[in-house]
């Protein structure tokens, strides 16, 4: 296995809210909130929820290319981030974050390992694996989508709004609550998150918005923001970057995360045959600092086989309900 020497992989392998600053590009006209598109997504308790475990991810050649002609490498995005920092258009910590957590924008060439069939894998344990365990949980989120492009200004300066409260357990039975406090526009190169709330759009895959380890996915509702994580009733991890998205189904009957060519999944191939959407809650190892986002592994209460706590959350609500408001 090839190991990329990042702090994230070191934590996973057992080796050891974003700053409200820089402006973003694009300036559409914002319509009044009364004309905004509004949506609610929720899932009641007692329905199917998964906790995604760290694991490898097979690389989709449609997104990542081949060993001879690789695509979606992080180096150009890191270079762009450094140039934007030098121009005063991005928090100064962003290039270091992308080096420590390159899956935000790509997969390094040295981390692409071929198997005996010639398929490429990202073998470093990551949040987009096929490994998951059933847990308990429920959630409710609301979305107010005012703009379709990132407005100028600091990451928190957006007319888009969202609320979210999510409850879930981990595979050991610990209880969690995630509360969104603020919608934000993540200050990463290429991340046009449509003002921080996205309705009826696409992201991930080759779009440059979100990790390319997830296929390009039809998005019914999504937000990016900062919130707090409570564990067993106590505030445990404040000011954490959160991304919640309700999408078309991207996991098959065996719970494998599919490739681009497989989408849209036929009903008989979906994990739950009669379900058209599911909701992903991802809390990455990123924390606020006075200078910008910094790499900081999440300290969950769930211990991995290496004796370390799982440093991220990826919770899958598989029987959600979408309501236009």
The number of helical elements comes to 4
How many β-strand stretches? Answer: 16
- Structural class by secondary-structure content: mainly beta
Strand content: 35-45%
Helix content: under 10%
The overall average pLDDT, rounded, is: 91
The biggest beta sheet, please?
13 strands, antiparallel
Q: Which word captures the global form?
A: globular
N-to-C series of helices and strands: HEEEHHHEEEEEEEEEEEEE
What does this entry look like structurally?
With 325 residues, this protein is mainly β. 9% of the residues lie in helices and 35% in strands. The strands form 2 sheets. Strands 1, 2, 6, 7, 8, 9, 10, 11, 12, 13, 14, 15 and 16 form a 13-stranded antiparallel beta sheet that branches. Strands 3-5-4 form a 3-stranded antiparallel beta sheet. Strand 13 (277-287) and strand 14 form a beta hairpin. It is globular. Residues 14-28 have low confidence and may be disordered.
